[in-house]
């Protein structure tokens, strides 16, 4: 409508603008989240959850109040990386996020289960609604940066997150193999279709640096990250090497103590 002032709360008309706005799920009354960054990939196994944890810990070290919403409902791994095992608590106002030893708030389905090894055998619509509840029914408090660890691919949950949460931008994770890079472009194209800015590309397992000779060995082949970035006009690129110490820190629940500078410049683009 030509006379539309985009103030849907004071309008009784049904139009495209109203439909678009209605898809956003309301935040909890006790939540004040400034920016939401979704971490995505076109397929599993490329280190998306690792990138989420490293970004969150880096921003936390930089002095920002940081949170993680674990949207990978059937494959949740965030609590394990931080050594968080206590179950989620709540009150009359809703759920309260778990907090890591250094102050990162998190919500994950594994923190709601009696046993972390219990499988989540749910249909897609239930999984998608669970993610929305993690956003709307959790009292997150004041958060500067919330990172959403997305499930792989471009299915129900990514679509729900992109439509229901006020996403500020996404970070796409890939690995050097050409096949993986092709699949990751699907995630990039989905973000373009949803009009969500792509903040950076992250190439995990980019190389292995030999402690003896100091040379970098490309275990999974040549990188294609620059080609993808150039093709889609993405200005920021990060590369994470194969480092056994990372796996050791994740497995022991001490990722917050792992010293690295992989995302030292992240605050300049987020």
Automatic annotation (TrEMBL):
ATP binds at residues 42-49. One of its GO terms (molecular function) is ATP binding. Keywords: ATP-binding, Hydrolase, Iron, Iron-sulfur, Metal-binding, Nucleotide-binding. InterPro entries: Mrp/NBP35_ATP-bd, NUBPL-like, P-loop_NTPase, YlxH/NBP35. Homodimer. Binds and transfers iron-sulfur (Fe-S) clusters to target apoproteins. Can hydrolyze ATP. Belongs to the Mrp/NBP35 ATP-binding proteins family. This is Iron-sulfur cluster carrier protein. It comes from Taurinivorans muris.
């Amino acid at each position: 409508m030509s006379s539309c002032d985009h103030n849907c709360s004071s309008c009784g008309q049904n139009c495209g603008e109203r439909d678009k706005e209605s898809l956003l799920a309301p935040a909890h009354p006790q939540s004040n989240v400034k920016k939401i960054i979704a971490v995505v990939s076109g397929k599993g196994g490329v280190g998306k959850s690792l990138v989420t944890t490293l970004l969150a810990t880096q921003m936390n070290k930089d002095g920002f109040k940081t949170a993680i919403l674990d949207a990978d409902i059937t494959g949740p791994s965030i609590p394990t990386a931080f050594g968080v095992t206590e179950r989620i608590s709540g009150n009359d106002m809703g759920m309260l996020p778990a907090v890591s030893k250094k102050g990162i708030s998190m919500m994950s389905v594994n923190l709601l289960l009696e046993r972390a090894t219990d499988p989540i055998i749910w249909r897609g619509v239930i999984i998608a609604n669970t993610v929305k509840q993690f956003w709307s029914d959790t009292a997150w408090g004041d958060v500067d940066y919330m990172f959403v660890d997305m499930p792989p691919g471009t299915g129900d949950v990514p679509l729900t997150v992109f439509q229901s949460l006020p996403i500020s931008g996404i970070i796409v994770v890939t690995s050097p193999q050409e096949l993986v890079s092709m699949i990751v472009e699907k995630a990039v194209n989905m973000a373009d279709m949803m009009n969500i800015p792509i903040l950076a590309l992250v190439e995990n397992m980019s190389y292995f640096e030999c402690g003896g000779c100091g040379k970098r060995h490309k275990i999974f082949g040549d990188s294609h990250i620059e080609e993808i970035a150039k093709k889609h006009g993405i200005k920021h690129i990060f590369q994470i090497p194969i480092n056994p110490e990372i796996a050791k820190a994740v497995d022991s629940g001490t990722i917050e103590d792992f010293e690295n500078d992989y995302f030292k410049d992240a605050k300049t683009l987020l």
